[in-house]
Specification:
Structural class: mainly alpha
Radius of gyration: 24 Å
Shape: globular
Helix content: 55-70%
Order of helices and strands: HHHHHHEHHEHHHH
Strand order of the largest sheet: 1-2
Low-confidence stretches: 4-28, 151-160
Number of helices: 12
Strand content: under 5%
Distance between the termini: 38 Å
Mean pLDDT: 82
Largest sheet: 2 strands, antiparallel
């Protein structure tokens, strides 16, 4: 029979356990099967932002509003940050993950992976052209060549061969005629809802400070501002609305429903903050 631990050893173990519990905050996930009031509020921020942007544009007393620094596609925030938006989102998420328990990190990576797959399918590749370019082509859009005298200028027939927006821009053309789902609205909303869902359990537990939360809040603030600028200066109202709807689909399916209602999904993907 093994000897019982001495009183001093027992006290040492208890003290170690107590210190560990103090250093690791207890995060209690939302156990309900529906969106909480806070989650509904966060989800409502982004359509409300687009309404605010459109209202500002319509009621603006001066035409000079259209000549703002942010109305230029080459502005620093657009070129450096939004253009590489998912990269910056991933960076903020990785900083956030440094405070997760080691056992929680693989499942957090899986949730990030699902969000990344949705971003790729919509904006980068879907068995060829991404979903947003397919929607543009299906609704009658094509690539109109702007250089009518260049070697690649062969009219609209040539343009129809360019089936992605990236290829169209590389050839000096421009998307015209179809429904151009707002990629900016999609990216900024999709990324923000993902980060909020991963951060929210920590905020509920009162863990809102530190470098980890600061990195996420910085990106969330920038994405909100650029969404507001996009809403004011770019795309039609319907293009912005479809971008918003597509952005909320993956978030609503995973964070709004599956992780709350399906125990098997919770086991496989974990719960943010746990």
């Amino acid at each position: 029979m093994e000897p019982l631990p001495s009183r001093s050893a027992s006290n040492g173990f208890a003290l170690h356990k107590e210190v560990t519990e103090l250093e690791t905050p207890r995060i209690h996930p939302n156990s309900t099967t529906t969106l909480s009031t806070v989650e509904w509020f966060i989800a409502g921020i982004y359509p409300a932002t687009l309404v605010l942007a459109s209202t500002f544009y319509l009621l603006s007393p001066s035409p000079a509003t259209n000549e703002s620094y942010f109305s230029q596609k080459g502005n620093l925030f657009n070129v450096v940050f939004v253009k590489y938006g998912w990269l910056w989102t991933t960076f903020a998420f990785l900083v956030h993950c440094t405070r997760l328990r080691k056992s929680s990190k693989p499942k957090a990576a899986l949730r990030w992976g699902l969000a990344t797959v949705w971003w790729i399918l919509v904006t980068q590749w879907f068995l060829g052209p991404p979903l947003m370019d397919r929607a543009f082509l299906v609704t009658g859009g094509t690539c109109e060549m702007l250089d009518t005298e260049g070697p690649d200028a062969m009219g609209m027939s040539k343009g129809k061969l360019l089936i992605t927006s990236a290829a169209c821009k590389l050839q000096g053309g421009k998307w015209r005629g179809g429904h151009d789902l707002s990629g900016h609205v999609f990216l900024l909303t999709h990324a923000s809802l993902f980060l909020w869902s991963e951060l929210l359990p920590f905020l509920r537990a009162g863990v809102s400070g530190g470098m980890e939360s600061g990195a996420v809040f910085t990106i969330l603030g920038m994405w909100w501002w650029m969404l507001l600028m996009t809403g004011i200066y770019f795309h039609t109202w319907t293009e912005k609305v479809t971008g918003l709807i597509v952005a909320t689909m993956q978030w609503g399916l995973l964070y709004g429903w599956a992780l709350k209602a399906l125990p098997g999904v919770r086991v496989a993907l974990g719960i943010p903050g746990v």
